[in-house]
Amino acid sequence: MILEWHRLDYTFGVAHRTETAGFVRSKEPMTPTTRPVAGRLFLVVGLVVAVTSHAAAQGRIRGLVSDRDGTPIAEAVVTAEELAADGSMTAVSDESGRFSFIGLNRGEWLFVVRSEGFKEVQAMANVRASGPGAVMRFTMDRDVFNPPAPLGGVLAGLRGRDILEDLVRADDLFDAGDYDEAIEAYSAILDAAPALSSLNLQIGHAHQAQQRPDEALAAYQAALEADPLNPEAQSAVASAGQNTFER
Q1: Residue 209 has pLDDT above 80, yes or no
Q2: Do the beta carbons of residue 66 and residue 139 sit within 8 Å?
Q3: Mean pLDDT of all residues in 16-33
Q4: Which residues contact 182 (CB under 8 A, 6 or more apart)?
Q5: pLDDT (0 to 100) of residue 59
Q6: How does DSSP assign 117-158, residue by residue?
């Protein structure tokens, strides 16, 4: 905040009297000793405003994010939104699930917690300008339709929702007859998740639809090599091999 020192103009003179409607008013001249007092008054008012504004943005909030079992949730994104204005702040929970905000304006705030694999939770809090600050505890339920990426296994590091969206897109391309684009889409999924070897069957079908039996046979064989007991892969290889032989 900028504090301004206002210049007060005054003149020296002697006291004089005026009479108005029977009343006598005495006007005292401003003296050199009164000007610093006025100046200090302006400065004190400015300091009070500055301190009040500074104190309004000293609110604190601490919190803990965990699941239903009480296990802390790390890297949960906590967003604080001020209801009386457009202000917002963001914090991320640490390994123990703890987070904190410092410098919040006094008033009502909405806190929204998001974490991959969990349902979003919200809560309101009245932030005070002084004191230790409120402690908020958030318990998150797992989102069965958006589970976190597994740490191990054939889909390690991959989110089921992302893979499903990619598969739907690839299938839509195949159904629309955009076979080359479908092949690219299936191949991209295979690059990210090689364990989904059955996608080679779809790639083979796309080649077959475009009268490319050699490429189709290669794709079917890749599917069979990955899963020798897959009856669909066995049938596809036999059929594609027969077509190649007849040519």
Answers
A1: yes
A2: yes
A3: 46
A4: 170, 171, 173, 174, 202, 206
A5: 87
A6: TB--EEEEEEE-SSSS-EEEEEEE-B-TTSPPPPSSSTTTT-
At residue 144 the predicted structure's pLDDT band, cuts being 50, 70 and 90, is low
Domains and CATH numbers, the chain: 59-140 (2.60.40.1120), 160-246 (1.25.40.10)
- In the chain, the N- to C-terminal Cα span, in Å, equals 86
CA 130, CA 134: separation in Å to the nearest integer? 11
SS3 19: strand
Check pLDDT > 90 for residue 204: yes
Residues 6+ apart with CB under 8 A from 12: 29, 30, 31
Residue 22 gets the label, from left (phi > 0), alpha (psi -120 to 50) or beta, of left
Q: Give dist(CA 158, CA 167) in Å, integer.
A: 13
Quick: pLDDT tens for 31-46: 444 445 445 444 444 4
3-state SS class at 11: coil
Q: Which of 157, 219, 160 is nearest to 187 (CA)?
A: 219
Torsion, Cα of 206, 209, 212, 218 (10° steps): 40
Residue 6: predicted pLDDT: 41
